[in-house]
Amino acid sequence: MQPKRYLAVPFMLIAVLVFALGCSSGDDGNSGTDSAEATATTTVDHQYGSTVIDGVPKRVVTLTGATAWTDSLIKLDVPITAEFVSAGYSGPDNRFAWTPPHESTVIPVDVGASPGVAEVAKFEPDLILAGYLPDRAAYDVLAKVAPTIPVMSTETVNDTWQQVLSTAGKIFDKEDQASQAQTEVEEKIDAIKKKYPAAQDKTATFGQLTPERQFGVVTSDNDPSAKLLAEVGLRLDPAVTGLSDNGQRVVVSSERVDLLGSDLLIFWPLVGGPEVFETIPGWDSLPAVRSGATVFLTNDTASAFGTPTVYSVPWAVDALEPALAKIAS
Length: 329
Known about the structure:
Blueprint: E1 4-5, H1 9-16, H2 36-39, E2 41-46, E3 49-54, E4 60-65, H3 67-75, E5 82-86, E6 105-109, H4 117-121, E7 127-131, H5 136-143, E8 148-150, H6 161-171, H7 175-195, E9 203-209, E10 214-217, H8 224-231, E11 235-236, H9 238-241, E12 250-253, E13 264-269, H10 287-291, E14 294-296, H11 303-306, H12 312-328
Parallel strand pairs: 4-5, 4-7, 5-6, 7-8, 9-11, 9-13, 13-14
Antiparallel strand pairs: 1-12, 2-3, 9-10, 10-12
């Protein structure tokens, strides 16, 4: 059976946490005061143009596609008024394991659904951090509510955690704090690379197992998960990247489990636990399975790789270390 494009909502959800609303380059900022904080402006360029933010926002709302923003604000000690999160994919009690406790109103959103504009507007935000949005029309809807930032990069569905953290530092006048936070994470990455030099340039495959016993796999080096793996010195398996000519994620039949012959495997089942993989003929014969270089995730933890943040990257590095040790031995 030939691999095919994989369009199941949960798989894309972990990658981009799809949110079917839109963002804005609104001109609504803080009311004028005599402080420098109120008169300063920040301009953020993004895929739909640019957003001008007046002063330092005080009522920030993050949407389901903005987990990197949420974690960046927490890291920078910026209060969050409200968080819209994806129910069932945001950790126990809608808090990721790697995200520190913090004060905010959390609004779970069903998978495949999206909050109405009125739900967002009722929090009276002066900044909406949206991340992924499906199109310009969605952006324009939120543009009438408050200044909004969608994905900033023009050739990806997710910004890097470094880009989000740096931009948050500029918006909230905490650039030094953001730079220090980035350095701390990058030092942890460098330390793991130095600890396992033999693991450098090894191949990896990241994806999920569907209830239909099919593998949804990442095929593009531009995918956020692939960029994270590259940071620790791994590369996507050519056997997997060759499955798509446009970099889209694809689904592979369990009959082609042989395509998962990379040095390291990172997978999670949508239903069940690691034991589900053992029911697939040929799984136990894969090189990574034989060597023990496998990382099993859950719906609560997969976004550590799928949507990396300043807090999830250290968690992901720790999760990878046992497998890195296996392929380096």
